[in-house]
Amino acid sequence: MFHPDPLKKHERTTAARATGSRPVYVGLGSNLGPRGTTIADALSRLDAEDEVEVVAVSSLRETDPVGYLDQPRFLNGAALVATSLRPRPLLERLLRIEADLGRTRGRGPRFGPRTIDLDLLVYGDELIDEPGLVVPHPRLHERRFALEPLAELDPSLEIPGRGPVQALLAGL
């Protein structure tokens, strides 16, 4: 599926580490078109960004829609990303990649079908609550389809302000 270019990444990884890279988790989802291909394309585009390295990707899983039920099933997962970008510029890049891959926000039902969904789930140990940017993702602790891939990537992950990912999963 996603195969980064290791030679190209080495230079950017070294630069990202030198500028204070931190672990970030991005949620991945798609329920329109060739879902797996679209997710792989989104990951390749994200990995190609300056100051961003896709370090690991969870397995992808079929999930039922949440909120708006009259739509196809989703393919969901998560990626561990190393970046020296602050949260807002990273979010802007995620939104641009979504738009480039055919996602139109603000049209159709909330939680409706989408070609790609890239959510900033966790940004290091930071708690962020700004207009248009809440991290950890505000519904992360309620969503098995987001918590399971995080637990796969890091079973000891602490969700800032919420606790261990394993405890959150056990509470669902």
Write up this protein:
The chain is an alpha+beta fold and 172 residues long. The protein contains five helices and nine strands; from the N terminus they run H-E-H-E-E-E-H-E-E-E-H-E-E-H. The strands form three sheets. Strands 1, 2, 3, 4 and 5 form a five-stranded antiparallel β-sheet that branches. The protein has a two-stranded antiparallel ribbon with strand order 6-7. A hairpin with a 3-residue loop joins strand 8 and strand 9 (163-164). It is globular.
For the record, what is the CATH homologous superfamily label?
7,8-Dihydro-6-hydroxymethylpterin-pyrophosphokinase HPPK
- What is the fold named in CATH at topology level? Alpha-Beta Plaits
In whole angstroms, the N-to-C terminal distance is 30 Å
What is the CA-based Rg, rounded? 15 Å
How would you spell out the order of helices and strands? HEHEEEHEEEHEEH
Shape: globular
Sequence stretches where pLDDT stays below 50 over 5 or more residues: 6-19
Portion of residues in beta strands equals 25-35%
Question: Helix coverage percent of residues?
Answer: 25-40%
Number of helices: 5
What key attributes describe this structure?
single chain, alpha+beta, Alpha-Beta Plaits, 5-stranded antiparallel beta sheet, globular
Secondary structure topology:
Layout lengths: L5 H13 L3 E9 L4 H14 L3 E6 L3 E3 L10 E10 L3 H14 L16 E7 L4 E3 L2 E3 L8 H10 L4 E2 L3 E2 H6 L2
Antiparallel strand pairs: 1-4, 1-5, 2-4, 3-4, 6-7, 8-9
Question: How would you concisely characterize the structure shown here?
Answer:
The chain is 33% helix and 26% strand. Residues 6-19 have low confidence and may be disordered.
